[in-house]
């Protein structure tokens, strides 16, 4: 699964793109609220607890202590109402989500942290009528920059169904992932990294790409078709951890976009070309198709090696 344990203080990374990306996040929350925010059931008390727990962990605990130059807490005279000021945007937000709706809480998360969050809760199911098993279901998200899939297609689904389009998921990943989810203990933070090349999109990329890839309806590009201003190495730094009170698992990711022109200018063109070759000939070559490699790989490699 390619997971490694992280120090919990490294949960969220802030970089120099923060302010610019928050502007984009704010406009996406405004223009596409139904894509960016999703909840299966606002009135479900387990989901309320999980969203509120993530919210207060972020704004009351993690962010003010890890990034005090950005997030400053403030108590009123009775020490009962705590607010947080984002010193970059100048905006003041509540430190707890109990007094606001779940969509509002998820929107505040989206507008203050350059990270996408997916909250999954365990459910007991007894489908074969002999033994109960636990499955994890996606109950809520705040996600501005998913790549190649639409979170609203995934809401309410189990982990295995969420990964439906991922080649060889059932054969190669499902068992170990289920075991990992069952055993992930509170206090442990793990990380995985994914990557692909994208040729026709920027940060906001909320559409289904695996459908056209597997239908074979994509047009193969030549190097002359490449728009270098829109060709990026796109990578997600993904983390997983469990919330102690709700028992929810939080899947979070930060998206990096590296212009392919910069990669070449820095002298890393051959490394990327070799990585693309590896994706094509790797242990699951269908992943190459899933990532639209048939469309872009030859053109991108030709550019990198020219
Ligand atoms: C141990 C943790 C996980 C592993 C090893 C894993 C693995 C993968 C892999 C291999 C892919 C194909 C693209 C890529 O290379 O990343 C993928 C796609 C995806 N994963 Fe995961 N995943 C994990 C956890 C999660 C969780 C918790 C969610 C919850 C929302 C999730 C949602 C997705 C989605 C939405 C896609 C895109 C599917 C599509 O194309 O429709 N993953 N995952």
Features:
306 residues, alpha+beta, seven-stranded antiparallel β-sheet, 12 helices, 38% helix, binds protoporphyrin IX containing FE, DUF3445 domain-containing protein, HODM_asu-like
Topology:
Layout: E1 4-6, H1 18-31, H2 33-36, E2 37-39, H3 45-66, E3 71-75, E4 82-86, E5 92-94, H4 102-112, E6 116-125, E7 133-142, H5 151-154, H6 159-162, H7 169-183, E8 189-198, H8 210-215, E9 232-242, E10 249-259, H9 260-265, H10 269-281, H11 286-290, H12 293-304
Antiparallel strand pairs: 1-8, 2-7, 3-4, 4-5, 6-7, 6-10, 8-9, 9-10
Q: Overview of this structure, please?
A:
The protein has helices at residues 18-31, 33-36, 45-66, 102-112, 151-154, 159-162, 169-183, 210-215, 260-265, 269-281, 286-290, 293-304, and strands at residues 4-6, 37-39, 71-75, 82-86, 92-94, 116-125, 133-142, 189-198, 232-242, 249-259. By secondary structure, the chain is α+β, with helices and mostly antiparallel strands. The protein has one domain (4-304). The protein has a seven-stranded antiparallel β-sheet with strand order 1-8-9-10-6-7-2. A hairpin with a 6-residue loop joins β3 and β4 (82-86). α1 runs antiparallel to α4. The chain starts with a strand and ends with a helix. The relative contact order is 0.14. The model has no long low-confidence stretch (mean pLDDT 94). Protoporphyrin IX containing FE binds at residues 1, 3, 118, 120, 138, 148-149, 154, 162-163, 165-166, 173, 177, 180, 192, 194, 210, 240, 251.
